[in-house]
Amino acid sequence: MPPPIAPKGEPKPKSKISASRRLSLKILLLTRASEQLEAEKEAREENKVQYLGENLPPLQLSGLQLEEIQKICKQLHEKIDKVDEDRYDCEAKVIKNNRDIHELNLKVRDLGGKFKKPALRKVRVSADEMLKALFGSKNKGSMDLRANLKSVKKEDIKQEKELNNEVGDWRKNVEAMSDMKGRKKMFDA
Q: Fewest C-beta atoms under 10 Å: which of 46, 84, 151, 176?
């Protein structure tokens, strides 16, 4: 359980460890850490020497002919190529894993955030204001949408009703047009 945080006006509670004791503990921790770092470096060097001793025996080139030396060089080049391929694969895996870690960290930050989406409100915008917002000051002419609407007169409505009545019900015309003469009438008309 963390200690309670004191308000700004009050002084911090005093530590139970004296300053000299705290300093001596810091020094001890730093010396112990440096000793461990040195031990890790030595262990790595030993592992490296052991690995090279197992996988790469010492070369004995004395008394060998030119063809045998060339053969050994080819084998070494093949080993080098294989090691380079393995190194490249490992680097690609590390890069992919780092990218995945970064993406997951971003997701965690997004999920952990306390961001609230603001409530949207209705905004009344005229056509001119909308065009101005979309195109900026490029569009100087105003656009009156009502002027472009088709005007409908009562006469047009009456004509459409008459046309619909003339055509009539499609079922009546089916029997009249069922034979070839009916089709001829349809094409003649």
A: 151
- What is the Cα 113 distance to its own chain's centre? 18
Give the pair of three-digit tokens for residue 35. Answer: 């000793």
Cα-Cα-Cα-Cα dihedral sign, residues 150, 156, 158, 162 = negative
* Residue 131 near residue 143 (C-beta atoms within 8 A): yes
Helices (H), the chain: 19-55, 66-112, 127-135, 154-167, 170-176, 180-188
Model pTM score: 0.35
The share of the chain scoring above pLDDT 90, in percent, equals: 34
Q: CB-based contacts of 69: which residues, under 8 Å, 6+ apart?
A: 61
Torsion of CA 148, 154, 159, 162, to 10 degrees: 140
* Rg, C-alpha atoms of the chain: 45
pLDDT at 120: 80
